[in-house]
Write a structure and sequence with these properties.
Elements: H1 19-22, E1 31-33, H2 36-45, E2 49-54, H3 59-69, H4 72-81, E3 83-88, H5 93-105, E4 114-118, E5 124-128, H6 142-155, H7 157-177, H8 188-199, H9 218-229, H10 234-249, E6 263-264, E7 272-273, E8 276-277, H11 278-294, H12 298-314, E9 325-326, E10 329-330, E11 333-334, H13 342-348, H14 353-362, H15 383-390, H16 394-412, E12 420-421, H17 426-442, H18 446-452
Length: about 450
């Protein structure tokens, strides 16, 4: 579909406190926030509800918004057939958790944007995540889906009712056995057994669980470390350390500015989805500090110091709270803020050895490893290998790289930064306080304890 300018008018979302909802304030969709007004209208008009859940740093949420919610013809289908409700999953994790279950029951795994269709009494009858504007990626086009579901609502009420009944039963099962299940006793033997079971699903080369896409899953990795502590065997510790090392050297870690991106689209942690989430960085800060307690390594210290500095610099409110997320996109392109071309590096650094060292260290080559010939920085050639090749002391190469990283970081700071969602969420702040408190003890940094306080 051709590009289309956003509508000049604003809808109800313009008055909402959520930055994510306000991103949709100029859509031609007749959006409602979740609340009595929307639900009452759905009941009064006996119309199905189109519930769209996302968050401000979600790349595919932006894609679907641009392709579908900004498109006047698709918006017309939405407005004519449905009561349209936008939800920020960071404001309403309760709603997100309930309706993610719909997509999981359909075997799709869940994710964002979450797109769920409900009866006026809030029972789901169909769901999915991202839908393209026309049939592709093995998914139906959003206009075709809207037309089919409106027809089913108006002409196949028995089928809709049966589907809603099945989802209601399935969601009840998920609630009984899922996150809301009753607590049970957990022994050290249970932890070891679970750790050894999870170990079988780990990538023996790159660390982490499974293949692409690959998420850090810090709580699962932490469980492996606990299983090792309780006598589960050295392979558990080795798997944890392999995962932490590969992530820290890969593109999922911001090699210039510190902090971790959301996840990697490949199995080896190279190309991330570039959004940065407070809760990911909070849990990883705690996990790398735990690793330091087990076995002190310069890499663990580097990651923790740089991640804390990133949080202090980018994610801390003047009153002391911590912001929620940073976007993946800037200037309309995902990752543009973070990637580099060889000529940019050469222009920024002294011609000759310093720029050559940096290009080799981070694997920055013509053609790159990302879109438009750009390079996502990863540590390709380690410092000790560079020092050996150049016949120089390791300390000299480390000093040169540190200065080069400082120069490139300052140059990057002049670029247009990704957007930031400045919501302060109590649960995520609790995770960051926990991470900072442990890190301050492990690394003897009382200033980090003050940041937590």
């Amino acid at each position: 579909m051709a590009d289309h300018p956003p509508s000049a008018h604003t809808n109800r979302l313009a008055q909402e406190p959520s930055p994510y909802l306000r991103q949709h304030a100029t859509n031609p969709v007749d959006w409602y926030p979740w609340g009595d007004e929307a639900l009452a209208r759905a009941r009064a008009e006996n119309k199905p509800i189109l519930l769209s859940v996302g968050y401000s740093a979600c790349h595919w949420c932006h894609v679907m918004a641009h392709e579908s919610f900004e498109h006047p013809d698709i918006a017309r289908l939405m407005n004519e057939g449905f009561i349209n409700i936008k939800v920020d999953r960071e404001e309403r994790p309760d709603l997100d958790q309930i309706y993610q279950g719909v997509v999981q029951l359909m075997g799709q795994g869940g994710g964002w944007p979450l797109t769920v269709f409900l009866t006026p009494d809030l029972r789901p009858f169909y769901g999915g995540t991202y839908f393209p504007p026309s049939d592709r990626y093995g998914r139906p086009g959003f206009p075709r889906l809207l037309t089919a579901l409106r027809d089913a609502w108006e002409n196949k009420a028995d089928e809709i009712e049966e589907q809603a009944r099945r989802f209601q039963e399935g969601l009840g099962e998920l609630s009984t056995h899922g996150l809301d299940a009753a607590p049970a006793h957990l022994s050290a033997e249970d932890i070891v057994a679970m750790g050894q079971s999870m170990l079988k699903r780990m990538d023996p080369v790159n660390g982490g669980f499974g293949g692409a896409p690959k998420f850090p899953n810090p709580m699962n990795v932490a469980l492996l470390l606990r299983a090792w502590r309780r006598g589960g065997g050295e392979p558990l510790k080795a798997a944890v350390f392999r995962t932490l090392e590969r992530m820290a050297l890969g593109g999922i870690y911001d090699q210039l500015g510190g902090g971790f991106h959301r996840y990697s689209v490949d199995e080896r942690w190279l190309v991330p989805h570039f959004e940065k989430m407070l809760y990911d960085n909070a849990q990883l800060l705690h996990l790398y500090s735990e690793a330091e307690q087990v076995e002190s390594r310069p890499l663990w210290r580097k990651v923790v110091e740089e991640t804390v500095e990133y949080v202090r610099r980018e994610m801390t409110d003047p009153d002391g709270g911590f912001y929620a997320t940073q976007d993946a996109d800037s200037e309309g392109e995902e990752g543009k803020f973070f990637v580099w071309h060889p000529e940019e590096v050469r222009a920024a650094l002294s011609v000759g050895q310093q720029s050559d060292t940096v290009l080799r260290h981070f694997g920055i080559k013509p053609g790159g490893n990302f879109e438009h010939g750009a390079t996502v920085l990863e540590v390709v050639v380690p410092v000790d290998q560079l020092a050996k090749e150049q016949g120089r002391p390791v300390e000299a190469v480390e000093k040169e790289l540190a200065e080069a990283r400082r120069v490139l970081f300052l140059l990057r700071e002049q670029r247009v930064k990704p957007g930031r969602d400045d919501k302060i969420l109590a649960g995520w702040n609790g995770l960051m306080i926990r991470g900072l408190a442990l890190a301050s003890r492990v690394f003897n940094r009382p200033d980090w304890a003050k940041l937590a306080a």
